[in-house]
Amino acid sequence: MLAIEDVSVSVGDKQILASVDLGVEDSEIVAVLGPSGSGKSTLLRAIAGLVRVSGGDIRWDGRSVLTIPTHKRGFGLMFQGFALFPHMTVAENVGFGLHMNGVDDVGKRVEAALESVGLSGFGPRRIDSLSGGERQRVALARTMAPDPQLVMLDEPLGALDRNLRQRLVSDTRSLLEQRDVTAIVVTHDRDEAVAMSNRLAVMRQGTIVQTGTLEQLLAAPADDWVRQFLT
User: Which of 60, 141, 219, 226 has the most CB atoms lying inside 10 A of its own CB?
Assistant: First the structure.
């Protein structure tokens, strides 16, 4: 279980996250939903250890991870825009983190990861030869290849056109469920958030204002802003 407890993050004099509280159960998929600039991506980076937490705590199975280096947390983060290396092949991209962590049988792990996203045989291809949907799948395979305890997806479909996004939503959720991982998906799209998750966490101005299913949130919104944002 992931527990985010009263977490704050500041950059210089600007506070990005303010007393964020959020729990994610084992095997649960939570979508963090909010407008641009609300702190969603910063929250993922704080969990991953890529930005310093100035207050509060982040716990995994009851143990604080704040002093654990990013590469030892066992978390996977898929960046917005995919952040693939254009000079590498598909296989090299997927295997990058495995090589960095000294994992054995990298080739077999890469093949299995590509097969899981429907890209068997794509290993030798170059990134610039792929379609947008194929790049999304490569990025997802790279995130999943190390078998992370927690998967975090930052606007995983935001760089794609709407028709392609609709086709990939169910595929992405199915993969997360098949792997039985705990996951957080960041998005600004309500329908995408609902389709990809078990529960929503609505974020505004650096804090989580309400959590629940869409039905629960619409039935009893925390305030008028939440109601308007979700309708």
Answer: 141
